Amino acid sequence: MKSLAALFALSLVLAAPVHAELSPAEKRIAATIDAEQDRSIALLERLVNQNSGSLNLEGVEKVGAMMRAELEPLGFAVTWKPMPETKRAGHLIAVHKGRAGRKRRLLIGHLDTVFEPDSPFQTFTRKGDLATGPGVGDDKGGMVVIVAALRAMQAAGTLKDANIEIHLTGDEEDAGDPISQSRADLISAGKRSDVALDFEGLVRDGGADMGSVARRSSESWTVTTTGKANHSSGIFSAESGDGAINELARILHRFRTELPEPNLTFSVGLVAGGQEVSLGDGGIRASASGKTNIIAATAVARGDLRTLSAEQAARVKARMAAIVADHAPGTGASLAFDPGGYPAMAPTEGNRALLTKLNGVNSDLGLAQMAALDPLKRGAGDISFVAADVDSLAGLGPYSTGDHAPGETLELPSIARQATRAAILMSRLAMERR
């Protein structure tokens, strides 16, 4: 039985006479990617078998060295940018200088995974056209798509004129602090680019490949409430008030009933209340003490906020602040947002135009058109740090399932399909003037 990759290559050959816009160089790109599929899978296996959990600084740097070895022979000037001040390994930055005056592309991926060295899930395993392993899809599969696309462009002669800058961050899954410093190089690259392409995984909806023109933000918030620590028999009286826990419950209930709107989600992930409450480092643990016959003196809740635009974020935060400020009797409350966080990648006309160009590639390859993905169906990502400055398209990596959990599985033929799409899109963009 022919593999899915072979059938995909055959479909390209059969489609070529009908879709006359596929140039000889683009046909060469498709043929090269198919011929080198085993090479791509071998690279994927090596990357996956090197642990690169975000806090495994040595492992992340080793994966960076492996990617350097792939990119330098393609004519990229590669730099390792260490980040000891953010307590993370660093980032790999690679630059290919093409013809002056042509559009500059920024390619984004990441070296790290969520699987630290103490995870039991450590090894690449292949079963036919499926592969499992830590980061096999997110985002080591994405990095393999980048390499496969660039190798095919070199073989077809379309790489030499292409202006490309690649940023492979070493802390996408657990960003270094302060994030303004850990993302400074990426933000600067976005400001000097014309197009940003993100190689995190492809998302399917109803079995159809989708294009990502938007990603929502990711921010964390904390509500802290106070009350009068009196005997419980006086609760709700003018002297004792409502207590800190009731005040926190009031606020969270009003968030739930008054905040909902399209493309917004907010979640409470941690709650504690009592006579005394303390938050641990990083705000991911809390401890509380108290008794049933007292009015709680303090309570705290931490949660997540995701929005589709900076305007939506500002509006929702103002509403949250107003709810928090409307105290119940005898209580106090404050709202704070963690510094940093991931901004939104809003669905701009420029992003939609990029998807239209990708669908032009799909048409010429004989592939189905890709509709814009509902932004509720994917999380935040590094591309959001540049999306305010440059037209952006996400989800150019391969298709995987079970990301961030043991058993993460990649559909291997999607490497060839995504690399072919990306290489032809980048080759066409290389001919466009700034």
Task: Give an overview in words.
GO terms for molecular function: carboxypeptidase activity; metal ion binding. Residues 1-20 form the signal peptide. This is Glutamate carboxypeptidase. The protein has two domains: 4-216 and 343-430, Aminopeptidase (3-Layer(aba) Sandwich), CATH 3.40.630; 219-337, 2-Layer Sandwich (Alpha-Beta Plaits). The chain is α+β, with helices and mostly antiparallel strands and 434 residues long. It has helices spanning 4-15, 24-35, 37-49, 57-71, 140-156, 179-182, 184-191, 244-258, 310-325, 349-365, 413-430; strands spanning 77-83, 88-96, 104-110, 125-127, 130-132, 163-169, 195-198, 203-205, 208-210, 219-226, 265-274, 276-279, 286-289, 298-306, 332-337, 391-393, 400-401, 409-411. It is built from eleven helices and 18 strands. Helix 1 runs antiparallel to helix 2 (24-35). The chain is 34% helix and 22% strand. A six-stranded mixed β-sheet has the order 1-2-6-3-7-16, with helices on both faces. A four-stranded antiparallel β-sheet has the order 4-5-18-17. A hairpin with a 2-residue loop joins strand 4 and strand 5.
